[in-house]
Batch of 4 targets.
Target 1
Amino acid sequence: MSKSSISEHVQPVYCALPFKRKVLIIIIVTLAGFLGPVSGNIYVPILPHLERVFSVSTSVINGTVSVFMVVFAIAPLFWASWADYGGRKTLYLIPLIIFIISNILLSSVPANIVALYILRISQAFGASSVMSVGAGTIADIIEPKHRAKAISIFMWGPQLGPVLGPILSLIPWRWSFAFLAFFGAFVYLLIMFLLPETLRYLVGNCEGYTGYFVKPKLFQEKIVEGYPKPPKPSLKVYWKLIKFKPVLLSSVNAGLLFASFYGLMVTFAHVLEDYKFSRVQVSVSYICPGISLILGSTIGGWLSDKQEKKIPEHRFSLQIIGLIISMCGIIGYAWTAYKHVHVASVFVFTFLSGFGMTWVFVSNTTYLTECSTNQPATNVAIGNFMRNLAAAICTAIINPILKKTGFGWCLTGLGFLNLVSIGFVVVLVKYGPKWRSEYK
């Protein structure tokens, strides 16, 4: 066989960018992914303090967390569908401008609860695109057999929120938002000048790029042929994906798990205050669940790629382990905190709950990028929607439930939600391949 006939059968590389360029892209989208979660977590440790600053009740100040999470859940559905259709880079640059302006205003307007609600909504709207669009960028440049490891690194951004957010909350709360404005501007410049467009429908496998710097542009024209055209964003497209059982079940699975973990997170500061922790000690204590998220993501991502074996559902077998770890952590936290056992035990169980949760999330997010290949950002956005909506609902209702059922039983109920998630995992392992083969 001639060399020319051999070359005709050689498959092009999945992504032509050199390894160092891929690493740079992952670093940039990871930094961008940090913005939304740190905006939420910079806020949670000082909720008791903000109650006094704004002269409102616990339920009212918790409501500012809920509206942030609701918007953070819904807005990516809009951003991600257009990122899958018209390009990734545009859907970084436009929302981040909104985020930067919101933080400038949060750092400067008078302390008014109505203004706080409005600006937290716009802040969430601006920061919300990155998680789903970032996952789409990863799917563009990293082939499936290595994708979970890359996504586990990308998730360091969201997971560093619980680590650095509480530390940043030690400075005056207005300066916290000023920091977010400055950091958002820095990330914006990185995206503008160093992040290439990666949507495969527009640029293929990126073989047309040379060098590290890119010419700033808001929209990318199509420069390749032969890649399937993604469907134009519409309610019909979303409804089709939401009805697609692999996307629906894996998204609900993540939502239930995140609701249980977020119930722990919004009570953590109050629990530590009962142990007579100072505000500084409370803020620093959030490093514990933050580190658990990073470790769980990293280990879970590495093992998930080991399990993939050409069939995406193979990733789910590891999720049962993570769900059991998280459930044990939440239930252990519930009763050690309620019985006022030594605070070290509270930290141990908090660590376990975060480790198990993010162990599950990395394989879940990777699976969403694989189960319908031309809409990875949209699939992840649906997963984020379920997850953040569940967190918002949990934040809104947990205080009344705590008063009615007591701390121990309330958190135990949240922990047992993981049993439902285990059921979803079993169903997906059994029927997921069949459902994906039938999807058109």
Note: Residues 13-215+227-432 form a domain with the Growth Hormone; Chain: A; fold (CATH 1.20.1250.20).
Target 2
Amino acid sequence: MAEYYVPIRNQSYLDMYTFEEMDLPFWRQWFADNWIWSLYIGAVYVITIFSCQRFMKNREAFDLRTALALWNFGMAIFSIFAFSRVFPEIFYLLTKPNGLHAAACKIEDHGMSMAFWALTYTLSKALQLGDTLFIVLRKKKLILLHWYHHASVMILSWYAYQTYIPLLRFVGTMNYFVHGFMYTYYGLRACEIKVPKRVSIFVTILELMQMIAGFSVTLFCLWQYNYGDNGCLISARAITPSAAIYSTLFVLFAKHFRSTAFKQRGKLKSS
């Protein structure tokens, strides 16, 4: 368990819902004691998806369009609503003097709404592993980026929650924003609604920008911690694996964007 106390203050920038009340020290301790379960869940996830892929090799693909549409729109609604609850705190902090430092390096002006949705963000990473089952059961192409992204982010989120460093506010807010677009796009495709091909590239660009922004803010926190006048509240247990995973995901997303962009551009020229 991290050694510092996280103060929860009244939110002058956002009205709190009753259901957002939570016991933050309890959940930090719970993840400190049980984060190892994310490794077990990750291992079961990888074994399951590749076992299912082998099982489906000589079988007809399942038609899961209705279930897939409901899944994606459900995730989209969840992400959009969560973003609407966490962004006000980030915006409020960024508008203060030295806003980026206040938002990424200090835990002041932290509200219960952000704390609650940071918890749901962390827990939802295990639920989002279900994305891959739709790919495998529908016999779509499963790429390294997809399953590595899901497994690594889930494990990192569970492991890092106990430290509760301010950087996590940025990570969760960006992720909710991108997922709001991404799941809406996949929901429309599941409904067989024609979406311009450029939208797919746009979604990939958003994901790539998320990796760049996350890695950049991580470097900012490290610089402030080592050389900044006001320091930065970070933890090696969280920031080291975060930097490593962000850098590898950036490479994989960049490679995926390059192949997708050239493929889509070729289709646009030939149409």
Note: The chain has a mean pLDDT of 90.
Target 3
Amino acid sequence: MSPFGPGAITQIRHGAYRIESAMACDQCKRLSIAGLISSERPTGTEPVYMIPFWSSNDPSAWAPLHVEGQEFVDVPAHVANAASEAYKSHSIENYMSAILMARTVVEAAAKETGVISGSLFNKIDELEKKSLIRPDTKEAAHAIRQFGNDMAHGDIAIAVDAEDSTEVLTFMSEILYELFQGPARISGLKARAAARKQAP
């Protein structure tokens, strides 16, 4: 990213400045805004001054934020979309939203497999009873449920962080693999094996 046009310098308190610059990607040429709070004030706002400033300082914030989801092949579209939304929330550091959406995904996935009665606690246990998930996957699903319940019921005094969100999303993805993606891959493998037997 290289400075593109004049930057903006705002003194926010004594000895502290908000530095912002339009930045162009060296590859795709699209623009973003880089910013940080610094005790160093560039001599001017023109690129000739901003280039050395950004060469020695890393932006602490970018706008617009880069939002990144995930693709979930062989997962029902509405469940896959919610799971991708969980990852998008995580990518912009909205960890509570990511965890709450992961809980939603677990419940939606259970309903999609025909487990529709009772609380999420009961749905998760029923998935394991039906051998749709392994016992350790059941425990992972309950962990997601517990984290998500905190968000849903306003128990947010203790903050969640990137590690919490990453673990929750990792387990969510494993649950989706076990319920949908793994069986789809096995079916595909069986179909290819059967086709080989029928080949001349």
Note: The domain at 77-197 is CATH 1.20.120.330 (Four Helix Bundle (Hemerythrin (Met), subunit A)).
Target 4
Amino acid sequence: MRILVLGFTGYLGGHIAGQLRALGGVRLFGAGRAPTADLPIDLATATTEHLADALADFSPDAVVNCTGALGTDPVTDAEVNARGPAVLCAALRRAAPAARLVHLGSAAEYGASGHGVRVTESSPTRPAGTYGATKLAGTVAVASSGLDAVVLRVGNPVGPGAPPMSLPGRTALRLRRAGTDPDAVLRLGELSAYRDFVDVRDVARAAVLATTVPGPLPRVLNIGGGRAVPIRDLVRTLADVAGFRGRIDETADAGAGSVRSAGVGWQCSDIAAAREALGWEPRFTLADSLAALWASECSRPRLETMP
């Protein structure tokens, strides 16, 4: 089976590529902006014609799209999260119409929901910001493409290698710098919102299953932990794992909140459809994820600066 992974060096893409490599009978190709890519491509600027020609050369049986802008600015979000999937779908229709497309969406596409509500794939989509809106546009492009395609709407990924731009990764980096200093202050801002955290290794396993399982799949599947956790609990648990002895500052202006989830106090996904379609459910607890995150953070080279 020939599988092309776009964004294969990113956080999610790296874990997905790693699990695909471990499968027998798979020939894996990496695509993206990394110098090691088998297919050098930037979906934000690629033309349909150029991408179709490249895809024809690789003749993939499946394509996994892990690319995505993380809410840095509206233009980049639109180019990568909305335009990119549309161009990819158009190119696949020309060059590899029988290939399965697995596209990583985001639970941010749902926006705010009532406290205690688990959103299903048929729940209304009311994204609260540019990130969620552009991810939703990408989902619409994929779901309406006519291809053998599925969108995995991923919750808040956490676990080994979490990048510093994510709240778990940023918190781990700051905890490492703080060490066990009892006078240290960790300024993160208000932490009362609830999020559905899912281990990155569980996300990768869902993507592998979606890529390889035979037969048609639903257009959209939620991939999350299936429960809502206060962000405060994640931070304090990670601080305990790190042996942090200082103070956590939760005042509203103490830290910059995530632009991806501004205004969303509760997010939790119903994952029953993924269990039925893929035979998938999370294997890692949040405690497992945070222990693995801290171990991976401690294994990184020491940095003199941090975000």
Note: Residues 16 and 164 are 19 Å apart (CA to CA).
